[in-house]
Amino acid sequence: MKSLTIILIAFALGFGAAIAVPATAQAPVVTFEQRVTMYAMQFPKEYAHAQLKSFGFPKQEFVCLAQLWGKESKWNYKADNPKSTAYGIAQILGETSKEPHKQINKGIRYIIHRYDTPCNAWKFWKRHYYY
């Protein structure tokens, strides 16, 4: 019964494939932070969309964010700009985090601070090819 519970939990968390663990084995402890990291690694757009919604932005703002970060990094959390210190999904200068959820959170905070909205940042990017 325990192995079925682990399979169902893994499936519910969106990890797709799950490994059955014998009832006598201890399931590895996965922290909330690790689950968030894994989710953002597999589904960065969905994570970013949920974060924008938590700030009260309408869906159109996510459309702008998707285009902006699609141009900047193609949503690759390992994207590295060899001409600057920009790194990660949001291509933040000096970014050091390898964790996509932290890159996304920092990128959204930067956009709000500098441009108020993702659509304003996208408009700026279309004129200057950076934001």
State the shape: globular
Q: What does the average pLDDT come to?
A: 87
Q: Order of strands across the widest beta sheet?
A: 1-2
Q: Which parts are unreliable, with pLDDT below 50 for 5 consecutive residues or more?
A: 1-12, 15-19
Structural class: mainly alpha
Total helical elements: 6
Keywords for this entry:
single chain, 131 residues, mainly alpha, two-stranded antiparallel ribbon, 6 helices, globular
Description:
This protein is mainly alpha-helical and 131 residues long. It has helices at 2-12, 32-42, 44-54, 59-73, 100-115, 118-128; strands spanning 86-87, 92-93. A two-stranded antiparallel ribbon has the order 1-2. The protein starts with a helix and ends with a helix.
